[in-house]
Write a structure and sequence with these properties.
This protein is an alpha+beta fold. It has helices at 3-8, 15-18, 27-30, 71-81, 134-142, 188-194; strands spanning 64-69, 86-87, 94-100, 106-112, 124-130, 147-151, 156-161, 167-172, 177-183, 199-200.
Length: 202
């Protein structure tokens, strides 16, 4: 079994649908096993802006990172990729690490002060995957045995695995992204979403 397979969890009912097109270079350093948080009473603090007259087209961009950046650079990344990005805001005593992939996915990791880019010491990561089928993939996952799904009042669709793990995913119908929150503490990813601490970069 590969290192990545061990991290992802071979028996996860969610793994095969969500990870088929994921880059492995950064996922292998951060993804552990799959947890999708229970989303009944809360909603993500903000949904992507979209209307019938504004259609977001995914595009290829020049890949960059991982590198330690400022909050201003994170905000500028929105213009670079041309679609919404999610994060957990600025956190005292932690550095922001940014990676942008060729397909315009954006990986934001929170590292301890002084840690080098690429360090495996991240306690929190928020990945915004550029994925035209991000919402549909979560819907497909929700039909698998051992998975619970909830759509909150703000439109975010979230699924939950019965397995205890460190991840949470959500997506919005009609918007070509899927967001993954990864922590080093079981259940915390869901807590961050439930308390609206995962928000749009703006």
């Amino acid at each position: 079994m590969s290192f990545l397979s061990k991290l992802k969890g071979e028996n996860s009912p969610i793994k095969s649908v969500l990870t088929s097109a994921r880059p492995t270079s950064i996922v292998a350093t951060a993804v552990f096993v799959i947890l999708i948080g229970w989303f009944t009473y809360a909603q993500v603090s903000s949904s992507p802006n979209k209307s019938s007259s504004t259609i977001v087209e995914l595009k290829e961009v020049a890949p960059t990172g991982p590198k330690i950046v400022s909050a201003a650079a994170i905000r500028e990344a929105v213009n670079t990729v041309g679609h919404a990005i999610y994060w957990a805001g600025e956190k005292p005593g932690q550095q922001l690490e940014l990676t942008i992939t060729k397909d315009s996915s954006v990986y934001i990791r929170y590292l301890p002060a002084g840690a080098k880019a690429g360090s495996k010491t991240s306690s929190l990561s928020v990945f915004t995957y550029a994925d035209k089928l991000g919402f549909e993939k979560l819907q497909a996952v929700s039909k698998k045995p051992g998975v619970i799904s909830v759509q909150d009042s703000g439109g975010a669709f979230v699924v939950k695995s019965t397995q205890k793990s460190l991840n949470a995913y959500f997506a919005y119908n009609g918007y070509p992204i899927q967001i993954e929150v990864i922590t080093s503490t079981p259940g915390k990813a869901w807590d961050l979403i439930q308390s609206a601490q995962i928000s749009l970069v703006n």
